[in-house]
Each structure stands twice: as C-alpha cells, then as structure tokens.
Amino acid sequence: MDISGFKESSTETAVNYNREEELKAFDDSKAGVKGLIDAGVAKVPKIFVRPPDELAEEFDRYKNNLLVPVIDLSAIEGSDSHEKVVDEIRIASEEWGFFQLVNHGISLNVLDEMIDGVRRFHEQDPEVKKSLYTRDRMNRVRFESNYDLYESKAANWRDTLSISMLVSDQLDPDEIPTACRAAALEYIEHITNLGRTLFELLSEALGLKDDHFNGLECGRGRTFVCHYYPACPEPKLTLGASKHTDPAFLTVLLQDQLGGLQVMYKNQWVDVQPISGGLVVNIGDLLQIMSTDKFKSVNHRVVANLVGPRISVACFFTGVFVPPKLYGPVKELISDENPSVYKDFLVSDYIEKFFSRALDKSGLDYFKL
Description:
The radius of gyration is 20 Å and the shape is globular. It is an alpha+beta fold. The chain contains ten helices and 14 strands. The model has no long low-confidence stretch (mean pLDDT 92). α4 crosses α7 and α5 crosses α7.
C-alpha cells in the first residue's frame, strides 16, 4: 500500500490538505487500517485525527474507578435466584444500559475460537480480503473500514468483517470466509440461542410475559460485525470507534482481553474491563423505544491503543427486516403517567437512517413524537 499521499497528523496544514482525496485514496486501497500499519505508518494520518473540541473534552470526562454490573446467568435455574437475575438485569438496563454476563453457557473454547478466527481473517493475505471489500450493503458478507467513512468528522482506527442475517435467517456456509467459517457458524448458533434467553429475561424485567419480545421476533434479524483494531502509533489522537448507540434491540459483544471499550455513565467514560469467558450485553435504540425509555441505550466507544490488535465480535439483534413489520412502544407500558414519546417504526427505516449518518449521531430523535 502506497502511503506517500497520506498527510501525517503533526506536520500537515489546512492549506494543502484535501480530505476527500485522502478518504478516497484510503478507500480505494481496500487494505483498511491494517494496510496502513503494514505499510509502516509512524503517525496517524490526518483523516483519522479527531476534532480539537473532542480532544479537549477528554480531560473532563474520563473516570476509571466504576465497574459495569456483572450478572451470573447460571442463577436463572432456581425460582428465587431467577427473580434475582431478572431484577439485576432490570436495574442494569435502567441505570447503565450495559452489563456483563458470566456463566452464560457458551464454552470458553467457542469464544476463543471465534476471536482466533477473526484474527486469521484480518491477518491473512490482503488480496484475499480485497475480494470482499465493498460498501454495498446488499452483500451479506463484506469487508470494509469505516462504514461512515465519508460522513464522519474523523475516521476510526479499525477494520470490519460483517456477516448479515438481516433479510434471511439462512446463511450459506460458503459465503463465510474460510479463515473463520467453522468458528463463526458455531458461534452464531450459540449467540442466537443466548439471545432468546436474554429477550425472555428482559421481557420479565419489564413486567411482561417472558415470551413477549421473542413473540415479536426481536431476535430474528442478526448482524455479526467482527472488528479488528490495529495497534495505533498515536492513540490519543483517534478512536477505535466513535461514541455511538446501537441500531438494534440488543447487542451481545465478545471482546478479547486487551480492553478499550468504554461506556458513558453519569457523564463519565467507564472502562468495560474484559472478563475471561464473559460477554458484554447492551440495550439498543429499538429496545429503548419499545420500553418507553425504561431501558437505556447509552453512548459507548472504543479507545485506540499503542498495543494491538484488539479483536471483538458484536451481534446486533435487529428484529424482522423483511417483510416489513411494524414495531413500537409496548402498549402495556404506556399510561397517562407514562405516555409514549415515540412513534411506531420499521426496522428497515431505522437501519436506513443509521447508515446515512455519522456513527456518533443518535437515531432516536427521528422517531420521537
């Protein structure tokens, strides 16, 4: 990859900097951020550098002595302990919008194999990856770097393999790259089953029948995004993922042990410390709408790191995409004291708006009454 055309963060001036040209050059390389590292960049190219006002905020909004709630899912088997787990999920979903799961029934071997498979994909021959590089969202399996490359103020320091099961529940195994095929197929099966359990518990946490969200097929559509965050030479200047909320009902995240994920809690960034064998769960925008703001979809981000790569796999549960299915605030949760502030929506409309804006822009306002 030729990096001679990229302007470095500390030397370039606005006079001869053409952002559009550099974005296109990066995109056309089809090599992603890892391609920059492989080519020997020693400084972060200017297209990745965050605006000065964002950098200035860091001094006031970071706090690392808080812990995201950790929930032991093995306790759901007993009647008394089941109620305790439901209550813990309710509190975490209302106050944090995030929690970590342990003893969730997925073996450490399955999790480690998925991480290793993602690593193999991203670290294989670049020419193999280039054959999958596209911004065409009709492609169910695609490789890209920064879906919002041309909309964002600053590009993020990460590359992504996406496996979409939005439209069809059936996935041809041959569509998945060989580097991670076996691991991905097993992981997808396990996470899909875990999603059903979580939707049952979340239904109960809202005082609904346990089959409420599964009955609405909230876990039917799924997209798996397999992120690769290379080591960054100037991590304070950029981000692995800008602050954002998720365009889904629910997200289940597998992360390696490097760390870097942060969640906004009471106007402070809190580290989501990796737990061996654990999974991170967070409420998405669509579940905040359906719960009439009882559950919170909160901002989170990934910081860049001198050490890398960081690897993670997020599963977004997005409900029914095709044929169109209307979702909206749960009627049982609406009253004179708690009126609905959101209108009904189609998942397809929400996803379309998500991909038409920068990652750090919330989509909830589009659907407020």
